[in-house]
Amino acid sequence: MKFITEMELRNMYRLEPFTSYTVEHGSRLTPEARQFLTDRQIAVSYGTQEKNQEQKQEPVPNPEQQAEEPDWRRGKLRCQMQSVSALFLLTGQELLERDVLLAQKVLELSKLFSALQKGEGGGTSAADLSFHGCTGITCDVLFEDAGDCFEVTEFHIQLEKGKEIALLHHLRSALRKLGFAVLEAAAGSPQEKPEKPVISGINYMINALSSLICRTTGGRTCQKQNPSHTAINW
After folding, report:
1. What is the pLDDT confidence band of residue 126, given thresholds at 50, 70 and 90?
2. DSSP bridge partners of 4
3. N or C of the chain: less Cβ packing under 10 Å?
């Protein structure tokens, strides 16, 4: 059996462009040759009925072409990162009118998020961190998933700092949702594994916000530990 290659078709097309091509009996197209004809919308016919069955088969995907196709998961991740970045700025701006020190903490986290966003996996050194843990989130688990740590309910928004608590909780929830988008994008791109440093950074920011929420409520005990423990250490 003779196999017709892409190079043969290219040479023929270069000499004289054609809009249809007949595969003679006893010949078969290679996957690259079939893709060449498909890309140029060249009609393909076969010399026998048996070969016409081949026409109905789906073309074999070209690995190089697949690699060039954009992954919608990574596009979605970039959009969500931009949305969270904007939310950081909006939260910081609203907090500036209410609590300057609290706004400063959020804007510090915003800078860390911007560094993470630029590389979708940069990371940061311990010297850059202002939050070093509390009684519920110790220094050895700063970059791990500690849950929401401090759960926000309807009761908390009725407090004097209710607006601030709601803003911080909204930002924390957006970061948690972003974490799942990172995992989704990584699952769609098995050749790349950027999710570990990104997830670690997101976990750190979620934990820092949980600690901020706890302090903003005015409570002096940690919900994750025995009530006899003191709460926040920044």
Report:
1. very low
2. 29
3. N
Q: What is the pLDDT of residue 101?
A: 92
Contact 88, 172 (CB under 8 A): no
Q: What share of the chain is helix, strand, coil (3-state, %, to 5)?
A: 60, 5, 35
Q: Read off the tokens for 213.
A: 């929420």
Cα→Cα distances 152→76, 139, 168, 176, 214, Å:
28, 23, 10, 15, 9
> What is the rounded CA–CA span in Å between residue 169 and residue 152?
7
Angle subtended at Cα 87 by Cα 81 and Cα 88, rounded to the nearest 5 degrees: 90
User: Rounded CA gap, 64 and 105, in Å?
Assistant: 46
198 neighbors 183 (Cβ within 8 angstroms): no
Mean pLDDT of 106-122: 79
SS3 assignment, position 186: helix
In whole angstroms, what is the distance from residue 230 CA to residue 234 CA?
Answer: 12
pTM of the model: 0.59
Of 94 and 129, the structure prediction assigns the larger pLDDT to 94
The candidate with the shortest Cα–Cα distance to 39, out of 16, 75, 13, is 13
Rounded mean pLDDT of 133-148? 76
The 3-class secondary structure across 108-145, one letter per residue, is HHHHHHHHHHHHCCCCCCHHHCCCCCCCCCCHHHCCCC
> Minimal CA–CA distance to 152: which of 141, 137, 139, 162?
162
Predicted confidence band at 60 (pLDDT cuts at 50, 70, 90)? low
Q: Which of 217, 84, 95, 85 is nearest to 151 (CA)?
A: 217
Query: Dihedral angle at the C-alpha atoms of 213, 215, 107, 132, nearest 10 degrees?
Result: -110
Site of tokens 């688990």 = 141
